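Hey, I'm writing a tutorial for new members on how sequence and structure tokens pair up, and I'd like a real worked example in the thread rather than a made-up one. If someone can provide the structure for the chain below, I'll link this post from the tutorial.
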Amino acid sequence: MRMKASAVLLLFLSTSVFGELSPLYEKRKDHDPDGIGIFYMGREIAHVMGHQGADWLERPEREEEERTEQMVDALNLKPGEIVADIGAGTGYISRKLSKRVGDKGSVLAVEIQQEMLDILTNKAVAAGVHNIKPVLGTITDPKLGSEAVDAVLMVDVYHEFDHPYEMLMSIGKSLKPGGRVIFVEYRAEDPNVPIKRVHKMAEQQVKYEASVHPLVWKETIETLPRQHIIIFEKPIGVDFAKAKGLPSLEEVLASKDDLWGEAAMRQTNGPTYKFFKDLLPPLRYCNAAFKHYPIVLSAPGATNKARLVSNGSAVNARSVLKHVWREVGIPVTFTVGNDKELFGSDLKKLQGPKYEKGYLPIVQMEYEHGGSVYSEEVFASTDRLFAERGLVFVRFKGEGEKAGVISAKTGEGNLTFAEKAVRDTNGYAWVYSDDKWKWDGATETLTATLGKGEVATLAIATLPIAQPVSMFGFPSYQQQRKSCIYTWESILAGGVQIETPEPYVNNAWRSLVIGALVLQKGAAPNYSAGNQYERLYEAESGDVARAAVLFGQEEEGKKMVVPCLDYARKGLFFHQAAFKLQLLAHYYWLTRDAKFVREMEPRWSKEVQRIIEGREKESGLLPKEQYAGDIFEDVHTLNSNANGSKGLRDMAAVLLDIGETNEATRISNAGNELRKATLAAVEKSIFANTKPPFIPLALFGYEKPYERITDSKLGSYWNEMAPYVLCSDVFGLGSERETQLLNYQYEHGGIAMGMVRFHQHSGLYGNESGVDDLYTLRHTEKLLQRDEVDRALVSFYGKLAQGLTPDTFIGCEGSSLRSFDEFGRPMYLPPNSTSDAFFLWTLRGLLVQDIDSDDDCKPDTLRLLFATPKHWLEEGKQIRVQHAPTAFGDVSVQVISKLKQDKVLVEVDLPQRSQPKKILMRARVPEGWKVVSARIHDKQVAVDAKGTVDLSGLKGHQTIWFRSVKK
């Protein structure tokens, strides 16, 4: 499993506490003497006032200077609320808060100095106040609990936090949904406020630092003489579902069932994209200073990749969170109008983003401001020279009757303009411009005035270009655009071709194939780009390689396999070995590339021996290793054992097929022994007193049942990893234990809209009350194997509608179901390549399945059109699949619905490489219709109750007529 940011953050916390500076923070020699010399998001952290200064907090003139009664009144606290006063000091403010919340409420007075808490407690007792509870916090955690507090107040204290990021994350975790974080800080904007500079904060700086947390600014109150009151809220979530007569978001989050998924299955013809599309605001926000999700742009597999902020506001914008995001290039920020409004900042006036033709990575959007309308188009060059520099082209066009001003603020200082290029002190060019732009050296800004139909073009490099060429030394914008289109269309044309009756589905799969190749770095199928996930993770990255091969990108998939086989990370060696073997086996069955398997022997044989020789003699199991990438406890894990068994058995089947009989027998025997030991361990570990019985992933009593899976962090990780066990086939396809594990997810709050639910209980952005949908891949794959079609379609459409950004199809690892506002929900570290793979695998599975039905780890059954949505076969609709790789060779299918003639016509070219034991085809006709018979050429054949016909034994081109009648 990959290491989530929470685990990374915990590492940084520990090193930071013991003296090593976290990458979040910067230490500078030159600094304000009243500061500690450590800077966070450009602000120096101030020295903390010790308990020796307690008298100053109780000074008689404080009320006159700060109007503290007026400040507390402005908070609108309600009786019965639980309020935390962080940095409470002597309790001066806490005592005022206590009156507002009353006897049924309480004030949690937090301090990191016990001496202050002693003073605070004594003063509360002396004042007869009994609802103040002293809390001894730490420099990284105020110790308030999870979702326990209605409001958190920080009066003149936040600027002194040694660890502002960690503290604010912990505070967010402590808030109830709808709870408030209130900053009261001396105004840095006002030079007349008689407070030292580092002990003041500007409103924009507070907003800046809060923007990387799941907090939404609500209001700023400026009625106090010296201080701002800046209020943020933890989102409750916009509820669109209730207006549709469906369960509300709160009901969905509280339920142990997939309420929306079940409602979708009850619709005529079952789940649809339309059903899920407007249940929630779309995915949009991320924990970076640029706020809106990034769209990564590059040539296929390029090393250097640019980052377009999805509201059109910037290219290569700074994220600020150094350990989470990687900064690339120099930031180029776009504003409109003479007042320099940030492009796309008012989402009511933004149209887009969207892609050229619906799927090509040429990003288009339009923004209105001051009566002027501006369109923006951005794409990455795919020409080799420019692709190596991560060059992107940006063109603005005036679309309205009124001329408008577009500005591009470049860089971070010390830039000049020469030969139509913005250059650094070395003379290297970062931004090329056409003649429409004018340079202002004082502000380092390019500005253009655009009338209707007029354009202004920039070329922005992610790595600077040393050659002294002007914009006109480059090929033209249109030439570059055509080249970009040609590159990506050629790649798509070389792979699988799929046409469904839903254009949005067709755009999605094409975009996601491209998206995976954009994130690819050289041969490596990286998990993401531009952030800490720009790296490999074994199972997840292997899924991307497999998706590439499944969609006909065989050479790219083959290249991706190698770095996955070379990948190593401490603590999860058996997990990795298992998925390396499974990856190579899957690649082999799709390609029958025996030569490659033999070339890779030094790599795979090492993993085979790791599993075989690593088993414990007494138990027969693999030794303890980490529960997951983020759960560091070493346990006997069902995941590693079940998938280790599958890895061995999969590899043995491959070796047998290529003639390595002796080695195949040895490895197969070891795999069967490990499977037997694993099943025995499960029987010793299972909890039979739950409904359904609970199968722990940590065996032998370490892990107990979860009444509601996401109520704990460990339960959430069980939910992510359970699908890996499901698709290990350790229990056997359709077995009782398999059914129990699958249903435990459904019946104990593990699934929402067909996707794996997750709640990390960390306060980390986008990881609370949400889904980690990419881990649904094997869950849905198992549903398809088991022929649970409607459940699989819930996953398919749930992912398309609520697990990808609209029109740009960007996925992420984790996303919250609670929205920040009506425009969007938070997402964690987009884009994500395994998110792409989840949708691609699932779409392929709706149309083409090659499965192992007899448990020998060799695919033997081909199933076609087994899980298509029923509305895809409404009158006149067509489905086309061309050259889809299977374990038996390529297959092509074309379907035309002619229900007015009581027919569904299918033309199929069956695989030629090898003959499946079984070939099954299904016509899933709309509600109100029933398939009653079928004809293959002139021969009548039987169909089952689901409209399935047996084509076993047939070869080559076949024509099948399904006869369908109204019920």
